[in-house]
């Protein structure tokens, strides 16, 4: 590498990252990050080094990633529009597909209007920083996604964290807050690392008592919770609404992109105020078409949602019966707690030897000593897959002494 003074000043940071990776992935068999699995389009399996492995950490909750209708819609859009949109939406980048997709998202979210971003990350950063600024206050759950945290940082608003899913703590924070400015409370509908659900009725009540807006990130809720996969409002039923809904098109919806839905006036504002929307290229035609088709399939085939919920419950029951901890998970995300970062890597490596992919999540993404495998159940998993996975997880946990042998 170039040894100029400029690079020398960066050296210690680059070395620290290398050291951190090496401390967990010291040999090829322990490599768990950036592994290029060849995922089969029509099953829950993936291939690595000539071995067929059961994928238990993918996010395609509805099993639509390889769906031929979704693929056909993407191909048709490629034929019609080509591969890119040549710019930002506000200038030359908009195509009719974006408007159709936004109308479908708004309809699905049950809101007046929606807009789509290049990713869920961009949707969070752009929406938060587009709504609040200096003089305003944002209240975020301790386990909110990093993109919410980054949106808060960009906004310049005062940021206050409350304890995870602790509404009393939020109420105390609201009481102590600056009386002026906009107050925005943001939670994940389903927490990506724990699989638990935000307590919407209590949150709504506290927000109303303190003149605060309530925004939810539906990334792991859309297509997964509620009788028709409608997310957190569908889960809790009528009478309990959020103010601003946001999500991704990269998980249950097997594409790329993010969205926000709300009153027309909010979206009209965000189209000019959300910087990652205004200053970043439009969502590609194939990705927009894939997302649109998948949303339509979700509306027509709610049985996919019931299947995911059923299989997730089956896995949770089996793991808990064997003594494995899955925190307060009640969704398709199941954290399999290993303990230390190294223990999570040991467990992931042993699982892979036993034919199952369960990817480790370590600190600082999760608290120290709560490193885990982040398991996700999808509509591709059959009952046999779930039973095979449970058996492999339990056998691997015993081999790693997370469970008694
Ligand atoms: C809760 C949550 N919000 C937002 C995102 C970002 O979504 P995207 O991958 O589309 O940028 C993620 C991604 O993992 C997530 O888990």
Automatic annotation (TrEMBL):
This is 8-amino-7-oxononanoate synthase. It holds the Pfam family Aminotran_1_2. Residues 58-393 form the Aminotransferase class I/classII large domain. It is an enzyme of class 2 (transferase). The keyword Transferase applies. It catalyses: 6-carboxyhexanoyl-[ACP] + L-alanine + H(+) = (8S)-8-amino-7-oxononanoate + holo-[ACP] + CO2. Keywords: Ligase, Pyridoxal phosphate, Transferase. It comes from Streptomyces cacaoi. Gene3D superfamilies: Aspartate Aminotransferase, domain 1, Type I PLP-dependent aspartate aminotransferase-like (Major domain). It comes from the Bacteria. GO terms for biological process: biotin biosynthetic process. Its cofactor is pyridoxal 5'-phosphate. The keyword Transmembrane does not apply. Its EC number is 2.3.1.47. Signal peptide: none annotated. GO terms for molecular function: 8-amino-7-oxononanoate synthase activity; ligase activity; pyridoxal phosphate binding.
């Amino acid at each position: 590498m170039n040894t100029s003074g400029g690079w020398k000043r960066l050296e210690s940071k680059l070395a620290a990252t290398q050291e951190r990776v090496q401390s967990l992935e010291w040999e090829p068999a322990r490599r768990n990050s950036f592994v290029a699995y060849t995922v089969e389009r029509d099953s829950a399996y993936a291939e690595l080094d000539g071995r067929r492995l059961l994928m238990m950490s993918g996010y395609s909750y509805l099993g639509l990633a390889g769906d031929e209708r979704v693929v056909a819609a993407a191909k048709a859009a490629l034929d019609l529009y080509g591969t890119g949109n040549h710019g930002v939406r506000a200038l030359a980048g908009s195509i009719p597909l974006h408007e159709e997709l936004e109308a479908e998202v708004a309809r699905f979210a049950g809101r007046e209007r929606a807009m789509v971003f290049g990713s869920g990350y961009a949707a969070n950063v752009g929406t938060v920083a587009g709504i609040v600024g200096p003089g305003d206050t944002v209240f975020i759950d301790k386990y909110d996604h990093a993109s919410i945290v980054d949106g808060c940082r960009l906004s310049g608003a005062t940021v206050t964290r409350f304890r995870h899913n602790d509404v009393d703590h939020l109420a105390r924070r609201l009481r102590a807050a600056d009386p002026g400015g906009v107050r925005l409370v943001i939670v994940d509908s389903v927490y990506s690392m724990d699989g638990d659900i935000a307590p919407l009725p209590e949150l709504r009540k506290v927000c109303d008592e303190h003149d605060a807006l309530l925004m939810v990130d539906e990334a792991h809720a859309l297509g997964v919770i509620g009788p028709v996969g409608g997310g957190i409002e569908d889960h809790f039923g009528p009478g309990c609404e959020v103010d601003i809904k946001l999500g991704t098109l990269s998980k249950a919806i097997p594409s790329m992109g993010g969205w926000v839905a709300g009153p027309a006036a909010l979206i009209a504002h965000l189209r000019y105020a959300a910087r990652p929307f205004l200053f970043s290229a439009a969502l590609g035609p194939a990705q927009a078409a894939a997302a649109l088709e998948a949303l339509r399939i979700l509306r027509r085939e709610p049985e996919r949602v019931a299947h995911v919920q059923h299989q997730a419950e089956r896995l949770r029951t089996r793991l808990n019966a064997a003594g494995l901890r899955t925190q307060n998970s009640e969704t398709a995300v199941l954290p399999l707690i290993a303990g230390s970062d190294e223990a999570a890597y040991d467990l992931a490596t042993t699982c892979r030897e036993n034919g199952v992919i369960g990817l480790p999540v370590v600190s600082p993404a999760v608290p120290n000593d709560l490193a885990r495998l982040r398991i996700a159940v999808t509509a591709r998993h059959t009952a046999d897959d779930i039973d095979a996975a449970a058996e492999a997880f339990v056998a691997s946990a015993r081999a790693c002494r997370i469970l008694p042998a």
